């Protein structure tokens, strides 16, 4: 696989981004599983999920920070500290683009100890690039209003926190990323969001999508308001964001640092934007196959809510290639009208809502099967 090279700083970041993914595209063997072992053997990974309810930032969030910070610190410095923006640049950019979020940011930075490095990381301004899989779809008609998503990522790199908060006079339930960002989630107005990697190599000046999704859930009520944010706030890499609300109004926004957001009434997304631009990633992630499966389901008038959800539990939408970091970590199901959410694993599920949110710990094991380990 050829490595893309250029002399500009952002191009250099893109080059490192591509090199990191080459491990997947070039038949990477995850050290966790190892290259040896008997033919046909399976291997397991483990991830502990936690449901955490804390209306205001406090000791529970601080405990999560203490638990995860060593790993996030390593990730944030993975390209060396000089590649990351200064605290002043982070604060100024957050103040310019998402000013309403600044008071919450300050509270969290204080709980994190007020350190320079942790405060820079928590801004999620120009963080190191990263790659996920993911399939997501909305069914919104007279009978149903549901958003379903599979999150495909290495289990050892997933935070695993389902966080219930009320930070800005708005209740939010979300799968957390980077300690306060959002992979997918819903607010008490029924606004629901989900992200997927956009399948493009470009890296630029902007924020990680999880902090943008947090901003949306904290301060938006409708899909139209969310779309305005997605069109306005810059992102550091390509993402596909699917949004729906309590009235069943949905869009998918294809965003990136080098072009204007494309926001259309599209009910699904996988891991490419309009056309394939990164062929190695598209092949490894099977983005076209998954998109076609979603299209078949959503275009079929006979598809029920239950049929759509169950499709996310089976290939090609469900993936078990955990050795290469492309396995499904969880399935999230959000019901905007009822304001409730479900999270599913192969042998366990949990349902939460704004009225009933039980704190618990969920120990999940992931097996990479031989047919996914070739």
Class by SSE composition: alpha+beta
Number of distinct helices:
10
Tally of distinct domains:
1
Known CATH architecture? 4-Layer Sandwich
Write a structural description.
By secondary structure, the chain is an alpha+beta fold. It has helices at residues 9-25, 59-76, 87-97, 102-111, 116-123, 209-219, 223-232, 279-285, 287-299, 305-311; strands at 43-53, 135-140, 145-152, 161-165, 172-177, 181-187, 192-197, 239-244, 250-256, 259-264, 268-269, 328-335, 340-345, 348-353, 360-368. The strands form two sheets. It has a nine-stranded mixed sheet with strand order 10-9-8-7-6-5-4-1-15, covered by helices on one side. α1 packs parallel to α8 (279-285) and α3 (87-97) packs parallel to α5. The radius of gyration is 19 Å and the shape is globular. Residues 1-41 and 370-374 have low confidence and may be disordered.
Compact overview of the structure:
The protein is α+β, with helices and mostly antiparallel strands and 374 residues long. Helices cover 30% and strands 26% of the residues.
Helix/strand layout:
Elements: H1 9-25, E1 43-53, H2 59-76, H3 87-97, H4 102-111, H5 116-123, E2 135-140, E3 145-152, E4 161-165, E5 172-177, E6 181-187, E7 192-197, H6 209-219, H7 223-232, E8 239-244, E9 250-256, E10 259-264, E11 268-269, H8 279-285, H9 287-299, H10 305-311, E12 328-335, E13 340-345, E14 348-353, E15 360-368
Which features would summarize this protein structure in a list?
alpha+beta; nine-stranded mixed sheet; globular; disordered C terminus; six-stranded antiparallel sheet; 374 residues; disordered N terminus; 30% helix; Penicillin V Acylase, Chain A; 26% strand
């Amino acid at each position: 696989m050829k490595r893309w090279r250029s002399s500009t700083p952002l191009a250099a970041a893109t080059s490192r981004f591509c090199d990191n993914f080459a491990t997947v595209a070039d038949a990477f063997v995850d050290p966790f599983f190892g290259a040896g072992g008997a033919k046909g053997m399976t291997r397991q990974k483990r991830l502990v999920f936690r449901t955490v309810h804390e209306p205001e930032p406090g000791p529970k969030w601080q405990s999560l920070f203490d638990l995860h910070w060593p790993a996030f610190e390593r990730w944030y410095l993975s390209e060396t500290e000089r590649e990351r923006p200064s605290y002043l640049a982070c604060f100024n950019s957050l103040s310019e683009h998402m000013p309403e979020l600044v008071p919450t940011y300050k509270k969290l930075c204080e709980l994190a100890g007020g350190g320079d490095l942790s405060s820079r990381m928590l801004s999620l301004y120009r963080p190191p690039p990263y790659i996920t899989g993911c399939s997501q779809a909305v069914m919104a008609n007279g009978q149903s209003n549901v958003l379903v998503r599979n999150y495909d990522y290495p289990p050892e790199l997933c935070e695993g926190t389902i966080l219930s908060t009320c930070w800005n006079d708005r209740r939010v339930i979300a799968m957390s990323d980077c300690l306060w960002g959002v992979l997918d989630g819903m607010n008490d107005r029924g606004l629901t969001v989900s992200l997927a990697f956009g399948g493009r190599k470009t890296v630029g000046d902007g924020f990680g999508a999880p902090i943008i999704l947090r901003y949306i859930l904290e301060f938006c009520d409708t899909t139209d308001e969310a779309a305005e944010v997605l069109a306005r706030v810059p992102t550091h890499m390509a993402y596909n964001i699917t949004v729906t609300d309590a009235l069943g109004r949905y869009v998918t926004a294809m965003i990136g640092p080098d072009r204007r957001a494309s926001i259309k009434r599209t009910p699904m997304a996988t891991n490419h934007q309009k056309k394939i631009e990164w062929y190695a990633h598209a092949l490894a992630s099977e983005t076209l196959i998954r998109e076609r499966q979603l299209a078949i389901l959503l275009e079929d008038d006979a598809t029920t809510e239950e049929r759509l959800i169950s499709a996310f539990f089976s290939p090609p939408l469900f993936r078990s290639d955990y050795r290469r970091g492309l396995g499904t970590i969880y399935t999230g199901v959000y019901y905007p009208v009822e304001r409730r959410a479900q999270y599913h694993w192969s042998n366990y599920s949990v349902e939460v809502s704004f009225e009933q949110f039980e704190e618990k710990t969920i120990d999940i094991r992931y097996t990479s099967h031989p047919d996914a380990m070739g």
